[in-house]
Amino acid sequence: MIVWLKILGVIFLLVTSKIIILSALFYREVRNAQKKDPAAKSFLEVLLLYQGLHALIYHRQAHFFYTIRLFFLARLISQFSRHMTGIEIHPGARIGRDFFIDHGMGVVIGETAVIGDGVLLYQGVTLGGTGLEKGKRHPTIGNNVVIGTGAKVLGNITVGDNSYIGANAVVINDVPPNSTVVGVPGRVTKQDGKKIEVSLDHIHVLDPIMQTIEELEKRVRELENRGN
Ligand SMILES: CC(C)(COP(=O)(O)OP(=O)(O)OC[C@H]1O[C@@H](n2cnc3c(N)ncnc32)[C@H](O)[C@@H]1OP(=O)(O)O)[C@@H](O)C(=O)NCCC(=O)NCCS
């Protein structure tokens, strides 16, 4: 009986000290997650139960080993993290401060992706390459960017600071700062808080076919209105 009590005591001590160490090391990240997720109820809930935070904690370790060229160990940690969290971050990816992945499942971040500070990703986001090219082949994401659920940002492109990528968008071209991008392929619908009239805009339109369809839709609407 006493032996079992001792074993339980040791387990309790180990778990509590792990929680205390993690709280101290990742205090800022937990607070950031609490700010970005209105559903987060407490510090402890985020620390112990948020997969997005756990993926970041594993990634910080994996990235350290990647930078000192212990690639196998780095990859081992990132694969373990993938199994535990459903989030795959290549150890080579460079991620800034105040990063948070909400919900998380299905997120993939490629080796040469660079992510600025204050970035928020939702589930199912891919920051990927477009083919089998080598070198820098994944996106660079600016500061305070939000990438909606299911969005794919592909290739060595840059998403400017404070931009918003809509849910399920497929972005394959650079995005200017302070923009909102939606659709497949992604097109800028707002910049610096102003809505962009797609049919009149020739700078931000990333897809001429989409532009033609929208012009046709507009003309059909006008004809219908005239008929009424
Ligand atoms: C893009 C988004 C940020 C809205 O931005 P907004 O600037 O407020 O855009 P609006 O709602 O004014 O919509 C602007 C236009 O884009 C369209 N649109 C908005 N979101 C879109 C999307 N994800 N895909 C395609 N079109 C979209 C709207 O229908 C509207 O079209 P219209 O001008 O022809 O009427 C938002 O719709 C979005 O996708 N957020 C992601 C949220 C998310 O992933 N949450 C996960 C929670 S688990």
Mind explaining what this structure looks like?
The chain is an alpha/beta fold. It is 41% helix and 17% strand. The protein has 6 helices and 16 strands. It has helices at residues 2-25, 27-36, 43-49, 51-67, 71-85, 208-227; strands at residues 88-89, 94-95, 100-101, 108-109, 114-115, 120-121, 126-128, 140-141, 146-147, 152-154, 158-159, 164-165, 170-171, 179-182, 187-191, 194-195. It has a 7-stranded mixed β-sheet. The longest helix is centred in the N-terminal third of the chain and has 24 residues, at 2-25. The chain is elongated and about 90 Å long. The termini are far apart. The model has no long low-confidence stretch (mean pLDDT 91). The protein binds coenzyme A (COA). Residues 103, 122, 148-149, 164, 166-168, 180, 182-183, 189-190 line the site of coenzyme A.
